[in-house]
Amino acid sequence: RLCELLDNAGRGWRKLAELAGAEKRFKCSAEELEMCSLKVLEPRGSPTQCLLQLLAERDCTLRYLLGCLERMGHEQACRVLSSAVQDVIRIMVQPESQVVAEGTQVPLTCCATGPPGLTYQWFCGKQEVPGATSPELVIDTATLAGRPEWYICRVNCGAAFTFSSWAHVQVEKSSSPSSASDYCPTMAGLQILRQPRPCCLAEGDTLALECRAIGNPPPQYQWFRNRRPVEGAQAPQLQVKLVTTAERGSYSCRVFNLFHEVWSQEVDVEIGEDPRQTSVTPYLLCSHCGQYGEQVCPTHSITTPPSLILAATDKVALLIGNMHYLHHKQLQAPIVDVHALSALLRQLDFKVVSLLDLRKAEMQMAVDEFLLLLDKGVYAGLLYYAGHGYENFGNSFMVPIDAPSAYTSEHCLCVQRVLREMQQRRTGLNIFLLDMCRKRNLNDDVIPQVGALEVTANIVFGYATCADAEAYELSQGELSNGIFVTFLKRWLLEDEKITVLLDKVAEDMGTLEITRGRQALELRSNLSERRALTDPIHPPGQDESSARNLQWAKAHVLPDSRHVCFDCGVTVQLGFAAEFSNIMIIYTRVVAAPKDITKCEARLTDIPEELDVDLKCTNKESPEELGSPLVPVWSLSCPSCCLYSRICGLQKLRQELAFTVCLQYTYRGMDDFVEERQRVNVGRPLIAKLNLQ
Prior knowledge:
Residues 89-164, 185-270 form the Ig-like domain. The protein is α+β, with helices and mostly antiparallel strands. The strands form twelve sheets. Strands 2, 5, 6, 8, 9 and 10 form a six-stranded mixed beta sheet that branches. Strands 12, 15, 16, 18, 19 and 20 form a six-stranded mixed beta sheet that branches. Strands 25-24-26-30-31-34 form a six-stranded mixed beta sheet, with helices on both faces.
């Protein structure tokens, strides 16, 4: 209808474009206006519809458009658009449920927008509240005895109507005499009536905490865990189903309104462990009968002593590679080294989290999540780090990518602190592979107070170089490997005690002429048993519901491939592949199109700014154009004729990953492109699910 009214040369679409362009983001270029004007040459073309499409893509609202038509003085177009704008009744302020003290007066508010002449009617349960025909309803709690406590408001204009959400008014008797009928919420501000209580749960239980308060204006809530806000927890009740050890910690609730703020007491939530899995005693595997146990197999212990093999309850690894430093020399090898070790460790049944380019806070959170994977007596925990580092006073430090030019221990992660936390988890085997320099940091003269380490015969340190020496990269064409991993990956799959394996790596490294006298592997260990990376896992398949598996699974879930259907009849496939736990490849492919559409392609736009997305690495016609040395690995599983985009830094994602699929196509016999857009939300992929922010 608007097109019929505005497709003319007088007070038409050009005047509308001129007035809308008063706001810079809605201003159309000369080329865009020419594109609109050429629509008259099409059988069903409309310059107005083309202009409205351009304004819609720039998020122009109907109300702004109506204002432009009013300034044009086009009364007929204003009436057409006014009916579209005003027919819908929208409730802008919903009444809120409240917990109040007995004898107080409680205001409920419902505000709506829509056509002129809106009327209100409040209901208590199914009964109309007499005389309650204004946006605000004031309830005297002294009259609530025996009556329903649920309230709702109907807003109507003529035959059109809509209802607000239900509001529950709960009346509580306070234990304090002073908070009875003479209580005045306006004077007192906020008062918490019900405090959360500490609890101890088992994995898989439901966590339920409650904090109830009264106040005027009505209170709002925000729950915190370990003094960090819990995303989406903004109700009086906090409920988490199927809890894991990831949910353990100290919880509190911030209660606030426009004028006041109070905090609930802080309570501890313990997630108890399954007593059947708390033992950290290594299992023994009898090579004669295949039985597992904590003691020697009784059948074969006397007559034919079997060879006994230590078995793991689980094996997990955290691999971190830092390359793109903000204030220091860029590195090349970590991307290749981390990927190579990930593939090899997965062959040994390790649960692997592999991450690239982490800032200080992200590294700390990644280590915290790694420690959760080590819960319940995990046999082997392996931490590999490739990047800049240093060693002072016997302590090793991993340098994050955001470390300042003159960094100290305050800006870095101390390896010995991580070891101490791993010991507290009672892991059976702690392995540190540190592919970094160990030169002294002259800017740092502070001796960190790590605390006493426990005496355990299960620690292995494999340093890529000796104390006060540097570690080097080996350039091989477009790829670069660290010297350490170049030799480590030759031996990693061998069924050898871990210290014997690292000795063989050291011997191989000693044969390399270019680093002789400059870099040599150093091994430190107090391992007293023959423990190897190849040890089997026991009991297989019995801890699939444990916290380890839940946490690990969260960090490795890719979005499901999906099809996006456009109005023109084109169907686009969205597919996903993972390079690392925090780097994802998205590819788009046109899988169906009408016969009258000739050229067609789908591009990604509007990717969240907090992610590390290089525009040069988006919407590429071949995987090789993305510039990743790992293309041959993941591209094998991708279909042909796609556009590829590489999304990095998923650990920085603060909300669900949403982007726009922009479809550009041409009809047969036409040169001009037509464009359609659809917004797509793929949730929190890979490591983003762990909320490292």
